[in-house]
Amino acid sequence: MTTQKYLCAEGRRLLILLALACPAQGSLNAQQEDQDWGQTPLPASDWRFNNDNNPAIGVSIDGFLVLAEDNRPTPADNYNSLSLRTVELDLAGRIDPFGWGYVIAEFGNDGEEESFELIEAALWADQLPNNFSLRGGRYLADFGKWNATHQHQRATSLIEGARLEFLGGSLRMDGLELHHWFGMGDVPLRWSVGVGSAFEGHGHPILPAAGGDLVPPPGGLESGGDGRRGLSRAAFTGRLTAQHEIQGDGYFQWGLSAFHTSGGRSQELEEAGVARNFAVGQSTYVVDLTWRQADGSKRTADVVGVEVLWNDREQVESFAEGVFSASGAGLWGFWEHSFSPQWACALHASWWEHADKRDGGEFFSGSEAGSMFSAYATWSLSELQRLRAGLTLYDPQPGTDPDLVFTLQWNGIFGSHVHGLDW
Amino acid sequence: MNSPLLLRWVGAVSFLLPMGPSPAQEPAASRDLPPPRPEVRIVATIPDLVDLVQTIGGPAVQVEGLIRAGHDPHMVLPKASLLLKLQRADGLVLMGLDYEHAFLPPLLEKCRNPAVQPGGIGFADLSRSIQALEVPQRLDRAAGADLHPRGNPHYNTDPEGGRKMAAGIRDLLQRLDPGRHQEYHQRWQVWDRSAQEHIKAWKAYLEPLRGRPLVTYHRSWPYFARRFGMVLIGEVEPKPGLRPSPRHLTRLASLIQEKQAKVLLMEPWYPSSDVDKLVQRTGLKRIVVATTSGATTKTLHYLDWIGSLVESIGVAYGLGPVPPLGSPADKEKVRDQARR
């Protein structure tokens, strides 16, 4: 046992685990060691790999019923459907004392075909000095308050129209993101900057595509194809946010975020049988405001969130015309009131100018805007399972009749589940 | 340095040496102690711990709480302002046994303060001195939503548990600020003596109720019941964290009538509508009490909170008020003495 006194506490723990995992038929020395540690040798049938060091595993199932009044010229076959929208598989674990990693993969079903997508897979170096941390890999960018929150964790079942228009849902990057937080007096502030070689909008269409066609989200982001990409094709993000504590158990948070690529977005155009890919730029800015007030003495809570988006992008509509500039603004917000941990209701509204609007002179022209209004009622059987009914008036294209959409979402999480820091 | 100057220094030092107490004469505690710290910053999770840190720490210790009095600990949001408090703290006092699981792990992970991390000099998980009750035999979500894998964490409802909490706080403060070792010890001693007297009086007061049943909304009171010899016969929650079904309430009502239970302990954050019919049907007396001190002006201090609960139960079962240990002025004097 002379070597044991040199072992650190962690090493000793490991030794205990190893001793537990040792078959009883092992060497005499092993048995002796077991006894020294006060462990009863285990029978061979109990030999197994201890899972203490395995990643935590969580699964979220998001079932979805859509009933809609289809007012479009070409009705979709699968407009009224009961579908398994997504199954999300989450793995997370500490790598070593210097960092941790996580993987989120999604089995999706948009009504037409099933897909498997790696939503996020990133490493966090979270022990850098002075509150710095670095994330690298594929991740939902730190961009606005809600970008990194997955849809099944938000107050709405359908993705907010303004986000869908300008980002194609949530902004996802393959790159690096540097984070830093600090306190200014009693106010915590946080900033981040990111650079990505590839990016994409991640989201699910609000409704199945008309006529059975699968169409990407209207203003969705997509970076150029593979190959070597210089800084001109890279995308950059930045965010600054502060959270102010307010009376009671609540906070007010504001944030400023920016996304920019000078030529990293890819737009494909085909004319007379000739296809061409254009590298075009885009900048999107977001101002987010969030107010949350909880009353733990009654177990009620209110959350109000607003995001204002400004989008400036290059577009191509014909070879002859070439690249032109377009811009648009959008706004969305919600209010969620929790009557108890079991019952909650939410209202959501979203307006957006179309991303390809050429006349960028006017900041917000309501007459050209798409809109979306929703009301939700949520019944949580427990913290891990809920049913949510929603009614949405969806009017993506002014001048046509809006769709009235009823949704019923059944969401369950099993396996590992943790609460992250809310900011 | 030239030699005359050196000689002068040696002379001066040798002149001064005999004036101090010899190491053998000096009390051991003060001989090796560094000077007291100007200020010790402590973050404590629940109001009981805030009260005890204030009492034992006295004016040199600044303490901030994370859970508000009278609020459901499951509702605490891990927000950034708490992160800042933890980063600036010299010490963290927590209940442990996953009491704070809803908010503390992500804050500890991000606060970057080694002193308050598990194993750090300022980390005090007070559950380490407790023999936990109700440690589940197996972990299964079918057993409820609010599960505590390492046992029931509400040991603060037992005043003997409170004594262990106070001793843990004393140890933490002495570790962080050895210069005030004696001060912390004295304050703790005064408080502990008072706690022992109270416990003796409460046990004598509730002795006639030994073996009598108690009904609770959430399974928060097994430590309290064990200390005073009462029996928990059922909960309004069918499983931890779940609201009751009418069927469960009907069964519970039968049990209450069979066992002749008279008291329902219910935290203020649970909806009274869940138990209105039950109370009406069975004649239970509902005692609304938080699982920590500080929720009302009469229960601002830990011992006052336990005392008030003891008396409420006694009165519900037909006992008179708890005989006073001393006048309110005497109690205040004891508290002041402890603070000083």
Task: Please characterize this protein's 3D structure.
The complex is a heterodimer of chains A (423) and B (340). Chain A has helices spanning 9-21, 28-36, 161-167, and strands at residues 56-69, 81-96, 99-109, 114-125, 132-140, 170-184, 187-202, 235-246, 249-271, 274-295, 300-316, 323-338, 343-352, 370-382, 385-395, 403-415. Chain A is mostly beta strands. The model of chain B is unreliable at 1-30 (pLDDT under 50). Chain B is globular. Chain B folds into two domains: 34-133 and 144-200, Nitrogenase molybdenum iron protein domain (Rossmann fold), CATH 3.40.50; 206-339, Nitrogenase molybdenum iron protein domain (Rossmann fold). Chain A binds chain B through residues 126, 131, 181, 183, 186-188, 190, 243, 245, 248-249, 251, 292, 294-299, 301, 340-342, 381-384, 414, 418-423, and chain B through 67-68, 70-81, 83-84, 87-88, 102-103, 105-107, 109-110, 112, 141, 145, 241-243, 268-271.
Looking at this protein, list some descriptive labels.
heterodimer, A: 423 residues, mainly beta, Porin, 16 strands, 7% helix, disordered N terminus, B: 340 residues, alpha/beta, Rossmann fold, 2 domains, four-stranded parallel sheet
